[in-house]
Amino acid sequence: MDDRNLMQDILLLEKGACDLYMHGTIESSTQNINQTFKTALNSSLTMQDDIYKKMESKGWYQTEQAEQNKISTLKQKFSAPQMQ
Fold first, then answer.
1. CB distance 40 to 81 below 8 Å
2. Helix axes 31-57 and 3-27, enclosed angle (nearest 10)
């Protein structure tokens, strides 16, 4: 296993941890538990961002710029009143 694959696995694990902490935050029954999950979630999100930035700096995680017309179309779609 090379460094790139290892970092991809670490990133996936960190994203999974973020998902678990988010659900723990949503489902927590007391303010104390809620705050504990929020703190863990924020820490995990920071780690996920650090991993992503490291991978991006090595050229292992590339993103494309969205076309402005696609952004405008989506903004229009989601800002329009929803019909029921």
1. no
2. 160
Q: In terms of Cα–Cα distance, which of 78, 75, 56 is closest to 66? A: 75
The DSSP string of the chain is --HHHHHHHHHHHHHHHHHHHHHHHHH-SSHHHHHHHHHHHHHHHHHHHHHHHHHHHTTSS--PPPPHHHHHHHHHHHHSPPP-
- What pLDDT score was predicted for residue 1? 83
Q: What is the mean pLDDT of residues 12-23?
A: 97
Q: What does the pLDDT look like over 24-74, one tens digit per residue?
A: 999 999 999 999 999 999 999 999 999 999 999 999 988 888 899 989 998
Q: Mean pLDDT throughout 9-23?
A: 97
What does the chain come to in residues? 84
The phi and psi torsions of 24 (rounded to 5 degrees) equal -60, -40
